[in-house]
Design goal:
The chain is of the alpha/beta class and 223 residues long. It has helices at residues 19-32, 51-59, 63-79, 91-100, 113-123, 145-156, 171-180, 194-199, 212-217, and strands spanning 6-9, 16-17, 86-87, 104-112, 131-135, 164-168, 183-187, 204-206.
């Protein structure tokens, strides 16, 4: 018996390793705004939470200047960073198998929706998803992760929350799933850790994309 009819994925750090493009574009933003440029390793904490929050909470950027930092970041990201990415090993094949077995797939991400589509088109994976929910490019819509998940559920027609699984690599994904009343799965190949997942009550934890198949499909995984 299948365990989940709907899988909703975070994007950065879960479906695609977009880290190189994101981190290099963040370095450009700091340089472009005349600030010291942090090391790439230090900027890894940007991947997961909304970018507006990261600039203010992690680096104390005044709210009046955050829009300028984001503008610099996105100028470089859209020009170059969008191409500096790769799907995680086994992810594309896993998504294809899930779709072939009738599982509906969605994206719920704090990344601007237009940039999600830019990356998916570049990698040729757009057709693998039935619904995509991101934020507004101009940051006019500061949706919570729970809001994003619930919006994706609505697009997918997922009415039975027991049949929905949120898959992500950071605590924000797990907390968002809890807020939406659905199960969660932390992935160890992204930017989070097992300790983080356990602290935020992940329903499941997997080490690699193919492990999602028996988790989602249950007995059907052997058919």
């Amino acid at each position: 018996m299948r365990r989940y009819d709907y899988l909703i994925f975070d994007f950065d750090g879960t479906v695609v390793d977009t880290g190189e493009g994101i981190l290099k574009s963040l370095q450009f933003a700091f340089e472009d705004q005349g600030d010291p440029v942090p090391d790439l390793s230090e900027l890894r904490k940007f991947i997961g939470p909304p970018i507006y929050y990261s600039f203010t909470a992690f680096y104390g950027v005044p709210e009046a200047r955050v829009a300028d930092y984001i503008k610099s970041y996105r100028a470089r990201y859209r020009r170059e960073g969008v191409f500096e990415c790769v799907p995680y090993p086994g992810m594309t094949e896993t998504l294809q198998t899930l779709r072939a077995r009738g599982v509906k797939l969605g994206i719920a991400s704090s990344k601007p929706e237009s940039l999600i589509y830019d990356v998916m088109r570049h990698l040729g994976i757009t057709d693998l998803f039935d619904a995509v929910t991101g934020t507004a490019f101009d940051d006019s819509r500061h949706a919570s992760k729970t809001d994003l998940i619930e919006s994706t559920m609505e697009k997918l027609g997922a009415k039975d929350k027991r049949r929905v699984l949120m898959v992500g690599d950071r605590l924000y994904d797990l907390d968002g799933a809890a807020g939406a009343g659905v199960d969660s799965c932390g992935v160890l190949f992204g930017y989070g850790s097992e300790a983080e997942f356990r602290a935020h009550n992940a329903t499941h934890v997997v080490a690699a994309p193919p492990a999602l198949l028996p988790l989602a499909l249950g007995d059907e995984a052997d058919i």
